[in-house]
């Protein structure tokens, strides 16, 4: 099967922070893959803009190295790389000084899509927005892409929204959450809203509970300084996990369109109940004989920052009343494993005599590894000996089910950047959504600060602190295994 690539209009994409880690690891390898897929019109340009005093050739070398190191074996030393690099240019600019900006202004062309990727620290967003206007580099049709973290609490997120709004309309602002660009996450919407099968069951009559897990094996590594001021709640829950929760829990939007989808997500966030302290478990990884502790890695021996969090959340509306949403994320866990599991209720009555095991249908949406969806169903164990029941998944691993087409699917960053060029905001967060998410997380974080809450230690390579297991055990439930 051949994948269908929808061409986009000719564009100029300026990457502020073009020499940075994110640009070299994710954005530029992703753009090269879109180039190879034939999605980058020949007249389009990618312009790196950063503080480093480089010429275009030196930046191209840097991009080549980035693609070789982070683009995977299929991109390394690719024959088409020189052609891609010819579409790249570089301007040295500092967001805080005047120099360089007239040169960037002179590079802008009329009648092409202009997009500006702010891949820099959020403290620079205001200065960049200001200069783009001052030098008439941005026009009415320009789009800006902003990275996380979008604020560190409600007040700072509001301030950031106000700053951007001074220069850009909401329909020009693309707040990126790369989880929304993942193939499986979009498939979650296709499964929910493209099949008649699930919607009648998608409520508190049939769903027992929902689990959302994002487990990483890595620690904080080089990001310790940033992470220690943030923690798992700000770094993962307020954005990625809450976005996943919204897509699972939202009402069907009237159309798959930015305004309609984002309205429904916002309603979910606003319906989240405040979380009592005993419904939250914070953890921090400890040292073992092979690996340092969180505190060692973060360089802060007195740190109380959480590298793990588990939350029992509830949504106060007709559809979900009484259904727990268990969210869990952490570093240095047993495996790299992200999954959303919709666990359906037990049968009201079993007709099979002697079958005392609990059989449950579970719809599992795996984000990584082996992206795919499976539905656990109860079937008869083959062979003689009467009706013995077993649970088996109906497997929809995309790589198996779709073969080449799945392998060619763009990764999250590529897809989202192409959506920016197309002007499609459906998979981006709106300003009011981000603020509502902070309004839910702020009181939780403030509670910890007031109580001087100390995270529970857990072993590297485990499933997190034992208390997190208890969060479900005490309600007769258990977490799904974290496994590779
Ligand atoms: P980085 O420190 O590696 O790079 C920062 C870039 O900003 C460099 O290109 C630098 O030249 C440029 N810069 C710094 N000061 C500047 C100034 N005054 N004017 C113009 N340019 C300036 O950072 P990064 O890891 O690439 O992260 C960039 C943004 O993306 C941050 O907001 C970060 O939170 C976010 N982010 C990064 C990752 C990641 O994996 N690295 C993931 C998610 C979000």
Structure in words:
With 484 residues, the chain is α/β, with parallel strands linked by helices. The protein folds into two domains: 137 residues, 3-Layer(aba) Sandwich (Rossmann fold), CATH 3.40.50.720; 275 residues, Dihydrodipicolinate Reductase, domain 2, CATH 3.30.360.10. 35% of the residues lie in helices and 19% in strands. It has 16 helices and 15 strands. The strands form two sheets. The chain has a nine-stranded mixed beta sheet, sandwiched between helices. A six-stranded parallel beta sheet has the order 3-2-1-4-5-6. A hairpin with a 3-residue loop joins strand 12 and strand 13. Helix 1 crosses helix 2 and helix 1 packs across helix 14. The longest helix has 21 residues. The protein is globular, with a radius of gyration of 24 Å. Nicotinamide-adenine-dinucleotide (NAD) binds next to helix 1.
Q: Count up the domains.
A: 2
Counting DSSP E segments of at least 2 residues, the number of strands comes to 15
**Structural class assignment:** alpha/beta
**CATH H level of the largest domain: which superfamily?**
Dihydrodipicolinate Reductase, domain 2
> Could you give a short account of the major beta sheet?
9 strands, mixed
- Taking strands numbered 1, 2, ... along the chain, how are they ordered across the largest sheet? 14-13-12-11-7-10-9-8-15
Strand percentage: 15-25%
Summarize the amount of helix as a percent range.
25-40%
Looking at the structure, the CATH topology of the largest domain is Dihydrodipicolinate Reductase, domain 2
Outline: globular
Low-pLDDT runs of 5+ residues are none
Mean pLDDT: 93
- Could you say which small molecules are bound to this protein? nicotinamide-adenine-dinucleotide
CATH architecture of the largest domain: 2-Layer Sandwich
**CATH class category name of the largest domain:** Alpha Beta
How many angstroms separate the termini?
A: 29 Å
User: What Rg do the Cα atoms give?
Assistant: 24 Å
Number of helices: 16
Keywords: Carbohydrate metabolism, Glucose metabolism, NADP, Oxidoreductase
Family: Belongs to the glucose-6-phosphate dehydrogenase family.
Function: Catalyzes the oxidation of glucose 6-phosphate to 6-phosphogluconolactone.
Binding site for NADP(+): 17-24, 51, 148
